[in-house]
Amino acid sequence: xxxxxxxxxxxxxxxxxxxxxxxxxxxxxxxxxxxxxxxxxxxxxxxxxxxxxxxxxxxxxxxxxxxxxxxxxxxxxxxxxxxxxxxxxxxxxxxxxxxxxxxxxxxxxxxxxxxxxxxxxxxxxxxxxxxxxxxxxxxxxxxxxxxxxxxxxxxxxxxxxxxxxxxxxxxxxxxxxxxxxxxxxxxxxxxxxxxxxxxxxxxxxxxxxxxxx
Length: 213
Fold this sequence. Notes:
- The chain has one domain.
- The chain has nine helices and no strands.
- It has helices at 3-9, 11-35, 47-64, 74-78, 83-103, 112-136, 145-149, 151-167, 177-210.
- The two termini are 20 Å apart.
């Protein structure tokens, strides 16, 4: 039995641990919202929280379906692999890389809980979920996977624009129309979507290598 096979055999317990960490990071961010006077649902506007919710939900369902255990619901679990697993992995990869490149150097925190939440949501969970994908993905992806996966980040860009036009405040500083103009907004937005597409094609290529036909 290879090292990867050994890890795959323990995946239920890894996921049980990390799903707790995942929900903790998300809940911490809502606690921070209350602490700094934001509306309780304010964190939901962030790409970070949305993508971490996707991961937490995926992991929760995998635990409920007992994936990796004898007697698990393989039929329901099978639907969570393939496009869904790949798309969520791509989303959370963008969360990790975009934060590290654009925000980590200037990030400030209102409390220790805020900082813990950031570390969990931007680093721990993304890295874990990528490893989970590498170890457990079992379905082959179609060539259309990258283009279909782009639907969410493109919709989020539209949401970020509408939110800013209505509230006059950008969700993220690097998407500020006031500071960078519409040209800057769309340049950054398109650049991030291109970066996302690159991740998708990387995962598509890796998928062809690691998934047995």
